[in-house]
């Protein structure tokens, strides 16, 4: 699975992937995201506004967040890249799970998509043998 054709910041990725993961279990409220990320509800609202502008998210009634079809596609692709990079950083560099997660998000948010696609495609081979 390739990364989508849009660059997102590390912060946008952190929120988007968390909303995506929470949505797998049902509806997602601003408060749910705030609790999982350890941030204030207004911070989640500000980020939700950004993600709505990017057409990745819809904000429904009662502070319920819903991903758009495009948002689901983008989040799934970035989550896949994050999993690959997390596994590599944890196994090869002996980083803690938390540090590997932060490193994966930082890489996904900092590098051009072409470079990330190349890296993720190289990682898929060796990591698929591990899992």
Automatic annotation (TrEMBL):
Gene3D superfamilies cross-referenced by the UniProt entry: Winged helix-like DNA-binding domain superfamily/Winged helix DNA-binding domain (1.10.10.10)
Domain HTH iclR-type, residue spans: 25-58
GO molecular function, one term: DNA binding
InterPro entries: DtxR_MntR_Metal-Reg, Tscrpt_reg_IclR_N, WH-like_DNA-bd_sf, WH_DNA-bd_sf
GO biological process: regulation of DNA-templated transcription
Pfam entry (one): HTH_IclR
Classification via SUPFAM superfamilies: Winged helix' DNA-binding domain (SSF46785)
Residue spans crossing the bilayer: none
Name the record gives this protein: HTH iclR-type domain-containing protein
The organism of origin for this protein: Hydrogeniiclostridium mannosilyticum
């Amino acid at each position: 699975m390739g990364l989508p054709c849009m660059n997102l910041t590390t912060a946008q990725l952190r929120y988007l992937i968390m909303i995506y993961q929470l949505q797998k279990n049902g509806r997602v409220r601003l408060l749910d995201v705030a609790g999982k990320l350890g941030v204030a509800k207004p911070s989640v609202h500000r980020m939700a506004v950004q993600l709505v502008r990017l057409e990745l998210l819809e904000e429904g009634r009662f502070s319920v967040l819903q991903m758009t079809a495009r948002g689901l596609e983008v989040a799934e692709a970035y989550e896949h890249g994050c999993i690959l990079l997390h596994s590599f950083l944890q196994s090869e560099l002996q980083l803690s799970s938390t540090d590997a997660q932060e490193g994966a998000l930082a890489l996904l948010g900092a590098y051009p998509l072409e470079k990330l696609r190349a890296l993720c495609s190289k990682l898929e081979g060796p990591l698929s043998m591990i899992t």
